[in-house]
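Why should sequence recovery work at all? Because a backbone constrains its sequence more than one might expect. Tight turns favour small or flexible residues, buried strands favour hydrophobic ones, and helices have their own preferences. The token representation captures these environments compactly. In the example below, the structure is given first.
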């Protein structure tokens, strides 16, 4: 028999049962400083083997006697956990898992008289599952893995397979994030290539961006360390485009347009890339809103040094860059891809191959999916702790044309 300790710091999220409530601190050591009964703390884990599991709650500090309502909606489980200052490990009984799935456990303070005393609710450190006959039966984000990458969820990608890959000068793609799938932190990346990426983001409740970035050939996460001969140079930009440098994921030139794109609309992206005669290659990104009667607008054009290359490594991805929303699903459709070579001849896009990042490959999380819809195109989905799909790394999808 084995005990499994699922930490709150890596695997929990806060929701609220009221319009406004105070926010507890979700830190790597767990949940602290919460006293609002409208707060719901939700912990997620995946169980691969059906059976009975004993569960208990481990706290690192109990300031006062308190009651927490513990529920597992998927199995209609409800338990009133009564903490006192002498108990840091509280048994919650036994749950019966009938089938492999993700399970969500909710914790909420009650409005009882005992909870109205001074002090915070108990700190939540770990949920312990015991009596598992299979030590590999339970999957969750391990403490040894990054809490940032684990809580934000897996990213997944499509690599586009072309009829040929020589001298691809232009690439087109359309991206549609469906209504109600445009969660804060979503990055639907339309056109990625070996030296940069181009797509649209949800940056806040009030701001969205069309983003185009190009990496420097110098390997550093600090843009201030890039030498002049390795700097990505701006050639031109759109009227309202903001120009910056970026770091922390390699470094280079960043350009973005603050733009109120809307879920449910298929936006058009065009990328043009070719070598120049001075040892640079020039990459230019264009964007079109089909709801407006106009042509493509320039986001920016960048020169990348020490590079003699057309467009290569063409791909798309969906990503969540906001860890606090890793419990909410996002989805994007990618459609009507087209490639054109330097002879102005169209090169067919034959298929798209699915892949994912380290959060998925290390089995920290399974909430990723990809496939093809005949009408809407290729799709990617991530986050939200939906149950495992049958898609495998390297699966290739084709559209009927």
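From this structural description, the recovered sequence reads:
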């Amino acid at each position: 028999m084995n005990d499994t300790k699922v930490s709150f710091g890596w695997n929990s999220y806060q929701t609220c049962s009221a319009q406004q409530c105070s926010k507890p601190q979700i830190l790597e050591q767990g949940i602290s400083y919460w006293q609002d009964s409208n707060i719901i703390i939700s912990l997620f884990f995946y169980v691969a083997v059906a059976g009975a599991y004993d569960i208990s709650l481990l706290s690192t500090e109990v300031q006062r006697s308190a009651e927490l309502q513990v529920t597992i909606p998927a199995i209609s489980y409800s338990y009133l956990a009564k903490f006192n200052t002498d108990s840091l490990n509280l048994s919650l009984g036994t749950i019966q898992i009938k089938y492999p799935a993700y399970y969500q456990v909710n914790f909420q303070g009650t409005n009882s008289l005992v909870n109205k005393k001074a002090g915070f609710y108990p700190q939540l450190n770990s949920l312990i599952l015991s009596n598992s006959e299979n030590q590999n039966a339970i999957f969750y984000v391990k403490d040894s893995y990054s809490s940032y990458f684990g809580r934000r969820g897996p990213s997944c990608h499509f690599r586009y397979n072309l009829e040929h890959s020589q001298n691809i000068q232009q690439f087109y793609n359309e991206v549609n994030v469906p209504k109600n799938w445009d969660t804060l932190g979503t990055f639907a990346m339309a056109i990625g290539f070996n030296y940069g990426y181009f797509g649209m983001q949800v940056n806040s409740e009030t701001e969205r961006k069309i983003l185009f970035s190009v990496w420097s050939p110098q390997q550093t996460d600090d843009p201030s360390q890039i030498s002049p001969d390795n700097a990505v140079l701006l050639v031109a930009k759109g009227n309202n485009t903001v120009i910056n440098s970026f770091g922390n994921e390699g470094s280079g030139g960043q350009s973005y347009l603050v733009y109120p794109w809307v879920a449910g609309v298929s936006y058009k992206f065009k990328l043009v890339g070719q070598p120049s005669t001075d040892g640079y290659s020039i990459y230019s990104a264009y964007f079109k809103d089909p709801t407006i009667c106009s042509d493509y607008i320039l986001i920016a054009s960048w020169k990348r040094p020490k590079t003699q290359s057309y467009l290569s490594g063409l791909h798309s991805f969906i990503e969540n860059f906001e860890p606090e929303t890793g419990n909410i699903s996002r989805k994007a459709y990618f459609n009507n891809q087209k490639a054109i070579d330097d002879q102005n001849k169209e090169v067919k896009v034959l298929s798209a191959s699915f892949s994912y990042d380290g959060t998925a490959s290390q089995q920290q999380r399974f909430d990723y999916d990809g496939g093809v819809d005949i009408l809407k195109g290729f799709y990617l989905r991530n986050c939200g702790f939906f149950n495992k799909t049958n898609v495998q790394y390297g699966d290739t999808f084709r559209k009927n044309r």
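A few observations help interpret the result. Helices lie at 8-11, 147-152, 358-361.
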